[in-house]
Amino acid sequence: MIREMKKSDIEEVFELEKKLFSSPWKKEDFVYQVENNEFSHDYVLVENEEILGYIGFLILFEHAQITTLGVAEKYQGKGLSKLLMNHVIRMAEENGCEDISLEVRISNKKAINLYEKYGFIQINVRKSYYANPIEDAYLMMKPLGGML
What we know:
Layout: E1 2-4, H1 10-20, H2 27-35, E2 40-47, E3 50-60, E4 63-71, H3 80-94, E5 99-105, H4 109-117, E6 121-130, E7 135-143
Parallel strand pairs: 4-5
Antiparallel strand pairs: 1-2, 2-3, 3-4, 5-7, 6-7
């Protein structure tokens, strides 16, 4: 089940984030997104009260931006990231967004392949975007229908 992330989910999501990424978000980043950022939409994928994955995105007028996506290692390869991506793309379309974007490490081939399957294309390189280790990011974008 995909549901909105709650304040009580943040600790578990943060622990996942630390295991999944070499440059994880801080706990305060999640708190801000969930509690204070009116443009942020954050969701968790839950089964038997365990958080299997999470996704966050911003809706900024006609543009959506995926800010974070993670699936617990033991559940990777089971299509859960696709469930989360489908959810976000559907919500962006329902909100009249014209496009959706994201940044991804250029070495993260698995994620890039997922995004390309969804029609995202590389439109730019953000130099030294990531730390630990310092690495460039691809800016990827997918056109959506927008307000028809």
